[in-house]
Amino acid sequence: MTRNGKIILVVVVIAILAAGAWGFGLFDHGAATVEEEPVLRYIVNNLNDITTIDIALEKGFFEEEGIKVENVGVAGGGAASIQAIASGSADIGNAAMPAYVNSIAAGTKIKVIYGGPAMAHAGDPGYQLIVREDSGINSARDLVGKTIAMGARGAMWEYSAREYLRQAGLSVDQVTILIVPPPQHEQVLKSSQVDVVVGGQPIADNILEGGGTRALTNLYNILGEKGSSYGFGSIVRQDLIEKNPELVKKLVATYVKTDQWTEANPEEARKIVAAILEKREQNPVIAKYWKPIHLANYGQLSDENVQYWLDWFIQDGKIKEGEIKPSDVYTNEFNPYYK
Question: Is 14 a residue whose pLDDT tops 90?
Answer without folding.
Answer: no
